[in-house]
Specification:
By secondary structure, the protein is an alpha+beta fold. The chain has one domain: VSR Endonuclease (Endonuclease, Chain A). It is 47% helix and 20% strand. The chain is built from 5 helices and 4 strands; from the N terminus they run ααβββαβαα. A 4-stranded mixed beta sheet has the order 1-2-3-4, with helices on both faces. A hairpin with a 2-residue loop joins strand 1 and strand 2. The N and C termini lie far apart (47 Å). The model has no long low-confidence stretch (mean pLDDT 90).
């Protein structure tokens, strides 16, 4: 798995490189993202362990019927672990990177707010 991740990191798509340059080094709300990160048997494009947030960049290969089905399965499996997904198309990165970064920033901000919000239910006390 490590060898495969290394190969993916060294051969990122152009869209992934553009996005990586915008989210690396804690540029969005001081949150760290990892690239080509493995979770179980899957490798995701970008992942924030702090937020449990996956960002997937979808290029032309993701739009075949077979790939759409696999992506649904993969996303469902990862969401069952409590992870959130944000899917971004290559086209959006090329045409509107500022909008993509803003969308990621808003998603990150909403997760951070939820993490800081205390539960509305009263604490359960032991007997």
């Amino acid at each position: 798995m490590e060898e495969r991740r290394r190969k993916l990191r060294n051969n990122m798509t152009h869209a992934e490189v553009i996005l990586w340059n915008c989210i690396r080094r804690k540029q969005i709300h001081a949150v760290r993202f990892r690239r080509q990160f493995s979770i179980r048997e899957f490798i995701v494009d970008f992942y924030s362990p702090e937020l449990l947030l996956i960002i997937e960049v979808d290029g032309p290969t993701h739009f075949t019927d077979e790939e759409i089905e696999y992506d649904r399965y993969r996303q469902c499996e990862l969401e069952s672990l409590g992870l959130s997904f944000l899917r971004i198309r290559n086209e959006d990165i090329y045409k509107n990177i500022d909008g993509v970064v803003k969308a990621i920033s808003l998603q990150v901000e909403s997760i951070l707010i939820l993490k800081k919000t205390p539960s509305l239910s009263p604490p359960v006390r032991g007997r």
